[in-house]
Write a structure and sequence with these properties.
The longest helix has 15 residues. The chain contains 12 helices and 6 strands. Helix 2 runs antiparallel to helix 9. By secondary structure, the protein is of the alpha/beta class. The strands form 2 sheets. Strands 4-3-5-6 form a 4-stranded parallel sheet, sandwiched between helices. The structure holds 3'-phosphate-adenosine-5'-phosphate sulfate.
């Protein structure tokens, strides 16, 4: 079944959301001027984007009390392709932090010339599929698909916003030499948040003292983020998600796919993805059937 044109359009081989961006704007990003000090979080949806956004906010802003401490994540680390709040990206003071779901071949040219830093976060695609399924039924900007089986087929065929998980991850992974890029997984963050924050700091050349590090880790836990109005995306409810249908920070665990997928669905997933994922194992540590 093809995705509804009301919710996605294809541009240069990638599915975008029509109410958030136009083809012209996507094309204009090729020339978007990059600064060496820019930092980009790159993810396929539902892979830990907001979590990483929050960690960057905490690393860059929290200690400074420069008037930005009450700003929400979406203003501090805005979406490159989805500039829904009409922010002036060009004149933003450095260091500019951005988020994107773009595939490697649609990002600004200078990013591909190893200018700026890229943090790519990936998550076990089975958990991504389940999280994406729940989010599709929460977000008013995505097509509601109440039947998981139908959603799964769409996901496996890459017929969802941001297209195929496999293409996204493989594209960024195989083109890594073109970028100044650091790969991280949701699972690493979940198993050792402090270690993940330290790795991010090392990549960014940021030195935090023990107390600052403790503050970042404390404020980046799932429980803390769920109660932090700047981090939990509750403000999205007015325009992007339907009140009362659920929460953006839903479960935040590894292996939730086992609570949703039947054995047959999991095997179907393996048949389509597992073999094709073999070449990714040097970049990402998990097997899609890993236990917690
Ligand atoms: S989006 O829409 O692409 O920006 O979504 P994204 O932020 O990438 O992914 C949302 C999932 O990440 C979980 N999340 C967390 N897990 C653990 N710890 C923390 N701190 C955290 N913050 C967000 C969020 O709950 C979504 O996963 P699911 O499995 O649906 O709970």
């Amino acid at each position: 079944m093809e995705p509804s044109e009301e919710f996605v359009f294809k541009h240069k081989g990638f599915y975008f959301q029509p109410d958030l961006v136009t083809p012209e704007y996507i094309d204009s990003l090729e020339d978007f001027e990059i600064r060496d000090s820019d930092v980009f979080i790159v993810t396929y949806p539902k892979s830990g984007t907001v979590w990483t956004q929050n960690i960057l906010c905490l690393i860059y802003h929290e200690g400074h009390r420069d008037g930005t401490e009450n700003m929400e994540i979406k203003y501090r680390v805005p979406w490159l392709e989805y500039n829904i709040y009409n922010m002036d990206y060009v004149h933003r003071p450095s260091p500019r932090l951005f988020t994107t779901h773009l595939p490697y071949y649609l990002v600004p040219r200078d990013l591909r010339n190893r200018r700026a830093k890229v943090i790519y976060v990936a998550r076990n695609p089975k958990d991504v599929a389940v999280s994406y399924f729940h989010f599709s039924n929460l977000s008013v900007t995505l097509e509601t698909i109440p039947d998981f089986n139908i959603f799964l087929e769409r996901f496996l065929a890459g017929k969802v916003a941001s297209s195929s998980w496999l293409d996204h991850v493989r594209g960024w992974s195989t083109h890594r030499e073109e970028f100044n890029i650091f790969f991280l997984t949701y699972e690493e963050m979940k198993k050792d948040l402090r270690g993940a924050v330290l790795k991010i700091c090392k990549f960014l050349g940021k030195q935090l003292n023990e107390k600052e590090l403790d503050t970042v880790v404390e404020n980046a836990t799932f429980d803390k983020m769920k109660t932090d109005p700047r981090a939990n995306y509750d403000s999205m409810q007015s325009n992007l998600q339907e009140r009362g249908k659920g929460h953006f920070l839903r479960k935040g665990i590894i292996g939730d796919w086992k609570n949703t997928m039947t054995v047959a669905q999991s095997e179907r997933f393996d048949n389509v993805f597992k073999e094709k994922m073999k070449d990714l194992s040097s970049t990402f540590s998990w097997d899609i059937n890993d236990d917690i």
